[in-house]
């Protein structure tokens, strides 16, 4: 009888466990590295494309490119687009991301985006998993911490997937009163090392509030803060965090307000934001970065911010996305191609032609060796030197 009970329990676990309704097809051979980046070529030509509506940004990991659609995440050969590995659940994908060199796939179970799996970028082999309480529409941003965003709830976890903080409308609070405020709406997000920032609007307050959580000092649903204070205005956007600062785009005439670690305003700089300023629906500013600089796409221009101070350095108008480092140059998407930009000065040497057909919307781009990977709406397009 005991044997039957144990066997039944094991069968029930097997049916209900994530592995029961999963198809995991690892790579069978080593990945072929993409060609290295050399000088910026005279033009780029399309190598392959694939639908990828569940990648909110370009995911280059290991030696390949990650695409995601429906319930499937797959690793593609960077040059040919051939599928090297795949991971599929019988649940819809909420979003994907990359942290600590691993691909993250977050699936929806009932009303929550709760089933998080990590995958090896070159093999597709499964790594650590965890359960989140994120809501549909969430983004996974940052490295340490990783921040799962939401309109009224967020959580952070380390690269080993250990949860470090919860903030907002917690589904199952450990103790009443652990959260400092209730009923707030979260509008924009950013991360830096051991910092997670949110610009929020709370009932009974006169303006938006900038809150910066310190995950290493938090205990579950008792978040610790570097600072949390009203900023005196509405309609702002949190653009970026650094180790000591937060950059907030103020409404009206484009200005970037800088706040120190204690939440004190330490500067305000005019921004050449171009003809249009976009408000990302997911609350995450479109940025890329290298060791010294953050490149922020305003919706009408690409603005370089010093990585430490977050002060604006230069701006290139008329762009379609933030840009990507390519060797010692910065390639910034523009209508009809990519601008070849000096990353130190913002000087544009030329425009390298790229045929995007009828696509005229925003373009996110990343380099994978000497290849350019563009995200145009719901489609990944990989380009090679021509």
Quick rundown:
With 386 residues, the chain is mainly β.
How would you describe this structure to a colleague?
With 386 residues, the protein is mainly beta. It has one domain (20-172, 181-385): 7 Propeller (Methylamine Dehydrogenase, Chain H). It is 4% helix and 49% strand. It has one helix and 33 strands. The chain has one helix spanning 2-16, and strands spanning 22-25, 44-51, 59-61, 64-69, 72-77, 83-89, 93-99, 102-109, 112-119, 126-134, 140-141, 146-148, 153-157, 163-168, 185-192, 195-201, 209-213, 225-230, 237-241, 245-250, 255-260, 265-270, 286-289, 293-297, 301-306, 312-317, 324-326, 329-334, 337-341, 348-353, 363-368, 371-376, 379-385. The strands form eight sheets. The protein has a five-stranded antiparallel sheet with strand order 1-6-5-4-3, with no helix packed on it. The chain has a four-stranded antiparallel sheet with strand order 2-33-32-31, with no helix packed on it. Strands 7-8-9-10 form a four-stranded antiparallel sheet, with no helix packed on it. The radius of gyration is 22 Å and the shape is globular. It starts with a helix and ends with a strand. Residues 1-18 have low confidence and may be disordered. InterPro entries: Quinoprotein_ADH-like_sf (IPR011047), WD40/YVTN_repeat-like_dom_sf (IPR015943). Keywords: Signal. Residues 1-19 form the signal peptide.
């Amino acid at each position: 009888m005991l044997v039957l009970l144990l066997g039944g329990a094991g069968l029930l676990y097997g049916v209900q466990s994530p592995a029961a309704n999963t198809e995991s097809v690892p790579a069978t051979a080593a990945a072929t590295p993409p060609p290295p980046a050399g000088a910026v070529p005279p033009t780029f030509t399309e190598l392959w494309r694939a639908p990828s509506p569940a990648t909110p940004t370009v995911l280059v990991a290991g030696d390949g490119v990650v695409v995601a659609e429906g319930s499937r995440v797959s690793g593609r050969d960077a040059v040919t687009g051939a599928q090297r590995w795949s991971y599929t659940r019988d649940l819809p994908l909420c979003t994907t991301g990359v942290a600590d060199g691993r691909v993250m796939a977050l699936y929806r179970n009932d009303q929550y985006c709760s089933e998080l799996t990590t995958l090896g970028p070159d093999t597709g082999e499964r790594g650590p998993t965890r359960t989140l309480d994120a809501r549909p529409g969430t983004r996974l941003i940052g490295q340490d911490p990783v921040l799962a965003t939401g309109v009224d709830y967020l959580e952070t976890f380390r690269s080993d997937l250990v949860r470090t903080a919860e903030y907002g409308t917690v589904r199952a609070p450990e103790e009443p009163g652990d959260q400092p405020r209730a009923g707030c709406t979260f509008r924009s997000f950013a991360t830096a090392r051991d910092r997670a920032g949110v610009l929020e609007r709370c009932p009974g307050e006169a303006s938006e509030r900038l809150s910066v959580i310190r995950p290493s000092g938090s205990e579950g649903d008792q978040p610790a803060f570097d600072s949390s204070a009203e900023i005196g205005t509405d309609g702002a956007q949190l653009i970026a965090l650094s180790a000591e600062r937060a950059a907030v785009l103020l409404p009206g005439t484009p200005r970037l307000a800088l706040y120190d670690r204690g939440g004190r305003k330490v500067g305000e700089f005019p921004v050449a934001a171009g003809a249009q300023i976009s408000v990302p629906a997911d609350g995450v500013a479109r940025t890329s970065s290298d060791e010294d600089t953050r490149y922020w796409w305003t919706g009408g221009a690409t603005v370089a911010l010093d990585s430490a101070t977050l002060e604006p350095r230069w701006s290139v108008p008329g762009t379609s996305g933030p840009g990507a480092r390519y060797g010692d140059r910065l390639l910034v998407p523009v209508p009809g191609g990519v601008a070849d930009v000096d990353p130190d000065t913002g000087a544009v040497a030329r425009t390298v032609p790229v045929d995007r057909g009828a696509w005229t919307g925003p373009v996110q781009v990343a380099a994978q060796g000497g290849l350019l990977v563009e995200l145009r709406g719901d489609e990944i397009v990989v380009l090679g030197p021509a």
